[in-house]
Design a protein that fits this description.
The protein has about 550 residues and is mainly alpha-helical. Helix content is about 60%, strand content about 5%. The protein contains 22 helices and eight strands.
Length: about 550
């Protein structure tokens, strides 16, 4: 085996595979199958494509990701956040009502999305996941859980709603319930499935309650002849497709590049959050660029075999986790099981009620809810709680990508705000411990007559340079004794731009006019280098810098007084 193949995550996992992982992986894969089939078909229809395309967009990407994906339990497939965008990109270009035309365009779209993500991965653009802080991930996952649960409630109760937003879905669902549109048979099946899943989770956790609920629902539906009374998933198509882009020309490809870029952003934003979150739950780390390349490869593979753009699933991944998935083998088992159904028993899901599927998805989504995490965030930091709330509201009310981008933007605002108004203080000596300490925490500390010690806990840049200048002047003005030296404890000054340099020069000029010597202690080498590059090496020579605060104070005490 070549070194390149050996480094692939799937190969590396296979070489280190443990026997005790096999049973939970196979169980999780089989449990996933009950969700992969109807979810794939449903999201394909939402994208304006034939239902069977959702199965192709499930099988091939799962197998591809198992080979190259860095996350061990991430489940890929069709997603609700991508479906409307796929429909908007593909359907206007389809020349006929033949579903094969739309399917060919969707395949090209999938390949383009994959190429964009692959390129982004090689350019190491996966760093964008570093912007997805814990508050953002917390708000995102809670919002996804709410979206999924609200979206599945009508299916659980046996009716459907027509709405294009979370608020709209809630309003239409409440209206339908108030109007008595609930199908009692479907609701009984749905709540019965919920009860089975929860009961097995509480009392017999080793047995996958999801699988039991699906099997029981199929048996009951077949025995009672419910296929004409309530909504059913329906029978599967037979066979697998070969690569085909018939009827697509280069003009169509050009038209699809723009939508592909937008879908790529959403797919990676969605996948990046889920990947990082679930990896953290299992004490692992996922490289964003590697994840981006893996999602790109999976989209290309899916698009080549009559699939369409896919991303990580916020409902199917928790199912895999709850079912005990340990490695990528769970996804492989799920993909192969779907393939077996297509080839051997395509009629089985004809008896699977939509209400049972709704129950399965609702239970899976509740695993993403973390109310206690939000409460802890409120107690620890109101600012970070605000970021989590912004991510929650943005994703829930505006959209996945828009909500995440809003939260990231607010994170940057918070960072700038902290640097704009940083903590600053005067340092004093205390009788019970060596060194120099914050006067706010040690109000009984002693100042050194003639010397002002100031600490400014932020990089100096255009927004806070004037604040730094004014603060030092205010401390000097408030001194009870004439000031001869000002020492800046500069260890925390990790940055310096041209605007801030001008403020430092102005401060030095002001202090020099009063006969006060400005010096810096513990300034980092790169900041000194920047002063030199800005042409200030003569103004701030070696006499202005000391390696420690203690050295600066010692120099002050032994200064030449002539």
């Amino acid at each position: 085996m070549t070194d390149g193949l050996a480094r692939l995550p799937g190969i590396a996992t296979a070489r280190a595979y443990k026997r005790e992982w096999l049973r939970p992986d196979i169980t999780a894969g089989l449990v996933l199958t009950a969700l992969l089939i109807p979810a794939g078909m449903g999201y394909a229809e939402a994208a304006g494509l034939p239902a069977y395309a959702g199965l192709y967009a499930t099988i091939v990407p799962l197998l591809a990701y198992a080979l190259v994906g860095p996350s061990k339990i991430l489940v890929l497939g069709p997603d609700s956040s991508l479906a409307p965008l796929i429909a908007a990109a593909v359907l206007p270009l389809a020349l006929t009502d033949d579903p094969e035309d739309a399917l060919a365009l969707a395949g090209v779209l999938g390949v383009l999305v994959g190429l964009i993500l692959l390129l982004g991965g090689f350019l190491r653009l996966g760093f964008v996941t570093d912007l997805l802080s814990k508050p953002i991930r917390l708000g995102y996952l809670n919002a996804i859980a709410l979206i999924v649960v609200v979206g599945q409630l009508p299916k659980l109760l046996g009716f459907s709603v027509d709405a294009d937003s979370l608020i709209g879905e809630i309003r239409e669902t409440v209206k339908a319930i108030a109007n008595g549109d609930i199908d009692l048979t479907a609701a009984a099946i749905g709540f019965g499935s919920l009860a089975i899943i929860i009961a097995f989770r509480v009392w017999i956790p080793k047995v996958p309650g999801v699988l039991v609920a699906v099997v029981v629902a199929i048996i009951v539906s077949a025995a009672l002849g419910l296929t004409d009374d309530i909504g059913m998933v329906g029978a599967l198509p037979e066979g697998m497709p070969l690569p085909s882009f018939g009827g697509v020309d280069w003009g169509d490809v050009a038209e699809l590049i723009g939508p592909a870029a937008g879908i790529a952003l959403i797919a990676f934003a969605d996948t990046g959050v889920l990947s990082r979150t679930f990896a953290a739950r299992h004490g692992e780390d996922v490289n964003g660029s590697t994840e981006m390349k893996a999602i790109g490869f999976a989209n290309i593979a899916g698009g080549m075999f009559s699939g369409f753009p896919i991303s990580a699933s916020g409902s199917r991944t928790p199912v895999a986790e709850q079912s005990g998935a340990k490695t990528q083998l769970a996804g492989v088992v799920g993909a192969l099981a779907v393939l077996v159904f297509i080839l051997v028993a395509p009629g089985v899901t004809e008896y699977l009620p939509d209400a049972t599927l709704g129950a399965v998805v609702i239970v899976a989504a509740t695993a993403l809810v973390d109310v206690s995490g939000m409460i802890r965030m409120w107690r620890m930091s109101r600012i970070e709680f605000g970021l989590a709330a912004a991510a929650f509201l943005g994703v829930a009310l505006v959209g996945v990508l828009q909500g995440v981008l809003v939260a990231i933007g607010l994170s940057f605002v918070a960072v700038v705000a902290r640097a704009w108004q940083p903590y600053r203080t005067e340092l004093v000596q205390t009788s019970d411990r060596p060194g120099f300490h914050d006067i706010e925490r040690h109000p009984d500390g002693q100042r050194i007559p003639g010397l002002v010690l100031v600490r400014f806990d932020a990089p100096l840049f255009f927004a806070n340079g004037d604040i730094f200048d004014n603060y030092v002047r205010s401390v000097v003005a408030a001194s009870e004794t004439p000031v001869e030296w000002v020492v800046i404890a500069a260890e925390a000054l990790t940055g310096l731009d041209t605007t801030a340099v001008d403020e430092v020069v102005d401060l030095d000029t002001y202090l020099d006019g009063k006969g006060i010597h400005l010096v810096f202690a513990e300034m980092k080498g790169p900041i000194k280098d920047r002063l030199i590059r800005f042409g200030l090496s003569e103004r701030f020579d070696a006499r202005h810098f000391y390696p420690t605060i203690e050295a600066a104070v010692a120099a002050f005490r032994s200064r030449d007084r002539d």
